[in-house]
Amino acid sequence: LKIAAVIPAAGVGSRMQLSYPKQYLKIAEKTVLQHTQEKLSQLNYLSHLAIAVSADDPYFATLNLQDERIVKVIGGETRADSVLNALRALQADAPDWVLVHDAARPLVTVADIDNLVQSCLAADEGGILAAKVKDTIKRGTSHIETTVPRDTLWQALTPQFFRFNELLQALTDAKQAGSEITDEASAMERLGYPVRLVAGRSDNIKITSPEDYELACFLLTKTGK
Ligand code: C5P
Prior knowledge:
alpha/beta, 7-stranded mixed sheet, EC 2.7.7.60
């Protein structure tokens, strides 16, 4: 069984208000992207690790990433476009399954990834790491319109793990339909595929705002995660 991974790392990270993308922020001498790549590189069952970076990215080449399975791919305008480009790059020697993991989530654990892969393969279904919502959730703009019952609410994390051909089809279809999707599962859901929710650690945060970065620095350095 052949499994590849895709790391979309072609975002600009505008919400961080930096002059460079957030995946190149440094935590303990290494960039966020390196921390993430090193987690995935620990998975010896991966055939390839495709990393999508933007066409004019001057930083990636300087990282000197140490894994012969890494394939650099040019990303697209949206995260979904970046993942689609990476899947197309892998198509010639296509894997059976693919893991997609945000560059901006360096705190993922190998144990959680293994758990996702094992539970999806055992069920023969795609799935995602997810964390149950802990806070009470409100819908509204300036004032609360409704309180959303949270017992069946989950935060979608990554990795997300799907059969390669099905994900390629689903992302291609979503793009053709002009559907704005923010994760792979959304594309699979559109086509009616079942997607498993596999509970993962809630500290697998996506670095989006400055306070996420502070938290990631603490977790990666102080606790040795
Ligand atoms: O913007 P957001 O935080 O949702 O990005 C999630 C991941 O997708 C990040 O790792 C980012 O680098 C990546 N991305 C991408 N191509 C884009 C936009 C985002 O690879 N056009």
